[in-house]
Amino acid sequence: MKKKQKQYILKWEMFGIFFLVVVGSLLSFVYEWSNKSVLIGILGPVNESVWEHFKLGFWSLVLFSAIEYRFIRNKTSNFFYAKGLGILILQGTVLVIYYTYTMFTAEPILVIDILSYILGCSLCQIAAGYRVLIKKNYSKTMNVLGLSVLFIHAVLLITFTFMPPKLQLFQDPKTLTYGISRSNSSILISILMVWSNTNLL
What we know:
6 helices; single chain; mainly alpha
């Protein structure tokens, strides 16, 4: 890959760090801003659990990737592999730092959580994104694998919003609750049933 192409991609990945941090920060409030809309709860955390905060990095990366792809798709053949690997690194960084420091503090510290998210975004965009994007072409299998990671991650985030396992990862440390409220889940199920019946007619 030529130097100019590398610089072009690097600029996009650096901008991506800023994008992920800003958009991810905004996503942390959208559920409350929407008056706890069930549909918005798919995109933003519905409680303070570690799992729910994975939405911040994931959906902001998906949005950024949708924009970025239009501009760099002809300059790399490793796009989806880079993004799939990137989200794993981002979420893994946040997870490891959180469970490491809470072993000593016994409770979350907002400043550390914010810094770990920024670090995760940086590693996602540079260690995974840039480094993979500028490499020689990987096999198509790696791109399929990366795309599969993104798809599975999206399915799990949506599913566990409404039906989370009763594990610490999914539990709000303040309210000790899991996922979205059952009343809101029932509303969504009712809407989906009505929509499904309408289409069948």
